[in-house]
Amino acid sequence: MSTVVYLNGQRVDYENAKISIEDRGFQFGDGLYEVVHVYNGRFFHLDRHLARLQKGAQEIYLDLDFGLDNLEKVCRVALRESGLKDASLYIQVTRGTAIRQHAFPHEVTCTWVVIVRESKGNPPDFYENGISCILVPDERWGRCNIKTVQLLANCIAKEKASRAGAYEAIFHRGGSVIEGSSSNVFIVKDNMMLTHPANKKILNGITRGIVLEIADQNNIEYSEEVFSIDDLLDADEVFLTGTTTEIMPVVKVDGKIIGDGIPGKLTKVMQEHYKKYIQTIDR
Ligand code: PDD
């Protein structure tokens, strides 16, 4: 049971997995990534993560020259070789290695990395009792729908949360709530779930999509619409969604208690549905 690394399709020891100082991912953040959850030795929607990677690649004019099928095969081999049951898969693709210049180089091949490592997940207490968040201004670029490795603004936001003793930082812009630094945000008001529309301002989370599908199947009302900071603070319930976050109840934002200060009823219902849903997915 160990961390398994594939670099450009070749298995390499973790210590010997090295990329060039001229890699465009290193110099420009010119690359994409995905994080996929592994439950009980099975990928959780690798298919959707690969589809998002492909879409992102089109958006940044990146030719996935190694082939998406090849990438999928390597992910599956890496997981098998790891022997891990509860794990996370990290995929990173960059435009490759070339002498530094802003314009895209010609005749360059992608650098692509697959890492499967053990994942312990968040403490159960977080899911049972909820976590706290802080609000931070969204200072990211205008294409947040693309899952690029340029995450400095997200990292600064998460560091601010961490220093404040909070789990997550929630971005806001022009008085509206956008998303978390590595999660999507849902609020519940009068049994209605609200989440930011999937436009360029947010990453359209795989988990977010699953939550909406679960809502559809169970006649739970929701709306993909912009809501304000006041709506967030006055919400009956708040929760976060994400691959590593799963469905995380939020009980405090910027020191303000949300609802009754405990995970809300609908949040718990969604957590239960999600737990069941996880058992059914192997693709
Ligand atoms: N982040 N929004 C942002 C900004 C994210 O970085 C993430 C995920 C999400 C949730 O997306 P999904 O449900 O597909 O995981 C929303 C990953 C997990 C990360 O950066 O580690």
Question: Could you describe the 3D structure shown?
Answer:
The chain folds into two domains: 4-118, Aminotransferase class 4, branched-chain amino acid transferase, N-terminal domain (D-amino Acid Aminotransferase, Chain A, domain 1, 2-Layer Sandwich); 124-278, D-amino Acid Aminotransferase, Chain A, domain 2. Helices cover 30% and strands 29% of the residues. The model has no long low-confidence stretch (mean pLDDT 97). It is built from eight helices and 15 strands. The strands form two sheets. Strands 7, 8, 9, 10, 11, 12, 13, 14 and 15 form a nine-stranded mixed beta sheet that branches. A six-stranded antiparallel beta sheet has the order 2-1-6-5-3-4. The two termini are 22 Å apart. It has 283 residues and is α+β, with helices and mostly antiparallel strands. A hairpin with a 2-residue loop joins strand 8 (168-173) and strand 9. It has helices at 24-28, 46-59, 68-82, 124-129, 152-163, 206-217, 229-233, 265-280, and strands at residues 4-7, 10-12, 31-39, 42-43, 87-94, 111-118, 131-137, 168-173, 176-180, 184-189, 192-195, 222-224, 237-242, 246-253, 256-257. Bound molecules: N-(5'-phosphopyridoxyl)-D-alanine. N-(5'-phosphopyridoxyl)-D-alanine (PDD) is lined by residues 35, 154, 179, 182-184, 203, 205-208, 241-244.
